[in-house]
Amino acid sequence: MAETGRLYQHAPSRKLAREEIPLLDVSPLFVGDTAARAELVQRIRKACFETGFFYVHGTCVGDRCIRAALEATQAFFATPDDGAVKQGVHSAHSGGKRGWSPIFTEPAYQAGTQAHLESFDLGQDAPGAAPNAWPDLPGFRAAISEYYESVTRLGRALAEAFSILLNMDEGFINRHSTERAPRTMRLLHYPANDAPADGRNVGISAHTDFECFTIMHQTAAGLEVTDVNGDWCSAPAGIGSFTVIIGDMLERLSNGVLQATGHRVVNTPWQRYSMVLFFALDGDFEVAPLPQFTGPDSPARYLPVTQDAHIARELKRAYDNLSPET
Questions:
Q1: Disulfide engineering: 173 pairs with which of 159, 220, 284, 308, CB 3.0-4.6 Å?
Q2: Cα separations (Å) of 290 from 45, 85, 251?
Q3: Strand, coil or helix: what is 291?
Q4: Between 140-165 and 34-50, two packed helices, what is the crossing angle to 10 degrees?
Q5: Alpha helices, DSSP H, located in the chain
Q6: d(Cα 247, Cα 124) in Å, to the nearest integer?
Q7: Do the beta carbons of residue 147 and residue 123 sit within 8 Å?
Q8: What is the mean pLDDT of each run of 10 residues along the chain (326 residues)?
């Protein structure tokens, strides 16, 4: 497994040629053209197995919805750190699970690193989840809620495609991603950072995501991802509406047939924003390699674990990396 702890934070990256970037029109997922949908699933399969990530356009998320959410995100992060807007939704009020987290408080996914970003976290009201904390900012809740629901619909459509391409039962992922899923969205602001790439001060350190897959909208370059060979590649912005990467749960369900996409954010002299949805399974769902991926010649590579337990374990490890010296 491309576990976070095995990702090499300091390895150099290469710039992808335009023809290497899978850009997929996913509109067949939202219409009744069975043949076009089947062809798209095969293109997603090809992208996953040959590249390890892909970009999408033709989604159910309108440009107006994206612009409104981005404007709300930028307006929130533009408020003073010590002002009432941010302080009123400080994540400390919810045990660090929902609301605003200031710069340098992000977990250290790689020991010895310090993340140069601030975040705002929200999600659905899953069992045990802290309530969402909405800032006193006109239009913010409406814009972000609409975006969350729209990207969740995109996630459900992509979940169907992943279920098909992995020969799961039809609707498998969505049946196990209900109101009990810790489906989180993060709004991220990376301020301009001219700090030298010394391996300590980073945008965010190398890791894989803990859920099934992740849907990202980013405003500027800075994201780097691993390809299927484990090599780091820059992931440009401005191509399609969203970047889709594979998470730990799809890797576990497929017994490593799909590999979770390692990613990191490097320092840039420009600021960037990212709006990220983590499409999770139900928190109490026990994830283990499915029977079609195991056998005498392919024993299970992963022990069973629930979605909630996996997230908790990985976050604890990352928070344990934080110290006054990091």
A1: 159
A2: 18, 46, 11
A3: helix
A4: 90
A5: 34-50, 63-77, 84-87, 140-165, 172-175, 248-253, 307-320
A6: 19
A7: no
A8: 62 87 96 94 97 96 97 99 98 89 94 94 86 97 98 98 93 97 98 78 94 98 94 90 97 96 95 98 97 96 97 94 63
Residue 326 lies in a domain: no
* Residue 216 belongs to a domain: yes
256 found inside a domain: yes
Residue 197: its pLDDT value, please? 60
pLDDT, residue 2, reads 42
Burial class (CB in 10 A: 0-12, 13-18, 19+), 103: middle
Do 296 and 323 contact (CB within 8 A), yes or no? no
Q: What is the pLDDT of residue 91?
A: 96
Question: In total, how many domains does the chain have?
Answer: 1
The pair of three-digit structure tokens given for residue 130, joined into one six-digit string: 């802290």
The whole-number pLDDT of residue 130 equals 86
Question: What one-letter code names the amino acid at 172?
Answer: F
The predicted pLDDT at position 68 comes to 98
Which two structure tokens, joined as six digits, stand for 227? 């390809």
Domain hosting 47: range is 4-320
Two tokens, residue 62: 């309108």
b/e for 51-89, b at 16 or more Cβ within 10 A? bbbbbbeebbbeeebbebbbebbebbbebeeeeebbbeb
Q: For residue 198, tell me if it sits in a domain.
A: yes
Q: In the beta sheet, which residues pair with residue 129?
A: none
CATH of the domain at 276: 2.60.120.330
